Amino acid sequence: MESVSGGDIAGLIAAGVFAVLVALLAVPILKLGRVLDELRGSIRTLADGATPLMDEVTATVTTAHGELKRVDVIAENVSDTTANVSALSSLVAATVGSPLVKVAAFSYGVRSALSQPQRGARRPGRRSR
Question: In Å, how far are 40, 69, 108 from 26, measured between CA atoms?
Fold first, then answer.
């Protein structure tokens, strides 16, 4: 039989301690692996749910852009119509306004002439000179 030296016993103890240390560290490493697997699954689920949402947002933005183009066209038409109405009112004022002023002045003159007493007729309450 061979004799076992102190170095051999120390080597066996060190190997045993190392085996226990590896066993103790294996448990948290395995748990961390499961957590990473769950995280990967959650990210995949999130990405699968985000893709349709992004497609819907893209469609909404595209629709809104089209509607804004229509509003721009409508606003441009309103602006053109406003300019046309302004020009038309200026034309009507220039065409009809001057004759109306003349008619008003004429009618005022006629009313003034008709409301004045005739020459030679006596006004009541006044003395003649």
Answer: 21, 63, 114
Contact 19, 25 (CB under 8 A): no
Q: In Å, what is the CA distance from 79 to each residue of 72, 86, 90, 91, 93? A: 10, 11, 17, 18, 21
**Type of residue numbered 119:** R
Q: Is residue 33 part of a domain?
A: yes
Give pTM, 2 decimals: 0.41
Asked if the structure places residue 111 within a domain, the reply is: no
Q: Express each pLDDT in 19-77 by its tens digit.
A: 999 999 999 999 999 999 999 999 999 988 888 889 999 999 999 999 999 999 998 88
Residue 89 domain flag: no
Using DSSP, state whether 126 is helix, strand or coil: coil
pLDDT at 89: 85
Q: Angle at CA 104, nearest 5°, toward 100 and 107?
A: 135
Q: Is residue 125 part of a domain?
A: no
CB of 123 within 8 A of CB of 117? yes
